[in-house]
Amino acid sequence: MDPQTSYLGYLAAVLTTSAFIPQVFMVWRQRGAPGISTGMYMIFITGVALWTCYGLALSDWPIILANGVTLVLASAVLGMKWYFARAGLAER
């Protein structure tokens, strides 16, 4: 793969992955995420985990990094949703 193609992959990885950062901060600030679909996030996290495994199998760093970081961020959103709901801290 030529360097320009790799840079394009890294740019795509940065943009799509960073899109989750505002969501993480919003859920943290609001102490809950009642409007976020648990089922959608569970399916999404499973898919992102599989993409990460795929990237590892190919040794494709843009895929590994983008999906690995997205996996952490999406899991944080879902984890906070569950935590704040259980702790009774979620906004209603």
Automatic annotation (TrEMBL):
The keyword Cell inner membrane does not apply. It is found in: Membrane. The chain crosses the membrane at residues 6-28, 40-57, 63-84. GO terms for cellular component: membrane. One of its GO terms (molecular function) is sugar transmembrane transporter activity. This is Glutathione synthetase. Its main location: membrane. It is a multi-pass membrane protein. Keywords: Membrane, Transmembrane, Transmembrane helix. InterPro entries: PQ-loop_rpt (IPR006603), SemiSWEET (IPR047662). It comes from the Bacteria. NCBIfam families: SemiSWEET_2.
